[in-house]
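Tokens for chain A. Residues wanted.
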């Protein structure tokens, strides 16, 4: 586990190699945050990463949102998630659903994607399965603009928890 002090000494490529996964399949967020080092603490690093993300184009935002796997989707069934995604989905109990629950998730995933053109994103580690299903249902009636912004906010929460997991506490 790296400390923040170590992270602050890394060159750009190494820095991105170590924290590039905080944003799902989207290492440019870390890469473009590197010039803002040194970071005082993990809150400062997280804020800098989020600032880089927010400053990007809407096309990049859409690609970032689309990089997220469906909850209880095909990739879960195929064991094809990243290690972090796998842990996040398991923490909400999404790796052990009944056939009826799985069908419910899949139906909502399809409806959400059809309405918004990107997958439903929620910080799975902060919600139980029932709360996730309720949120999927409720958010289906939102505007696309609100869902786009909500997804980016959830992605920031996912990155914060991944960062907490990664950085040695004593840093
Ligand atoms: N898709 C929707 N929510 C999540 C999440 O918390 N983590 C990952 N990796 N993908 C998601």
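Reply:
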């Amino acid at each position: 586990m790296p400390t923040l002090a170590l992270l602050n000494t890394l060159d750009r490529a190494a820095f991105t190699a170590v924290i590039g996964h905080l944003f799902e399949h989207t290492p440019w967020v870390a890469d473009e945050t590197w010039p803002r080092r040194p970071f005082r603490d993990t809150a400062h690093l997280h804020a800098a990463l989020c600032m880089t993300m927010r400053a990007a184009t809407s096309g990049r935002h859409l690609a970032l949102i689309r990089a997220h796997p469906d909850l209880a989707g095909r990739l879960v069934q195929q064991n094809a998630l990243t290690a972090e995604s796998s842990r996040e989905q398991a923490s909400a109990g999404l790796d052990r659903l009944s056939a009826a629950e799985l069908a419910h998730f899949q139906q909502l995933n399809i409806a959400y994607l059809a309405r918004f053109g990107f997958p439903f994103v929620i910080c799975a580690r902060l919600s139980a399965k029932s709360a996730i299903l309720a949120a999927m249902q409720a958010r289906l009636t939102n505007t696309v603009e609100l869902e786009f912004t909500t997804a980016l906010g959830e992605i920031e929460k996912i990155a914060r928890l991944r960062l907490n997991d990664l950085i040695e506490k004593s840093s």
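Residues 24, 68-69, 71, 85, 88, 121-124, 158 surround guanine (CB under 6 Å). The chain has ten helices and no strands.
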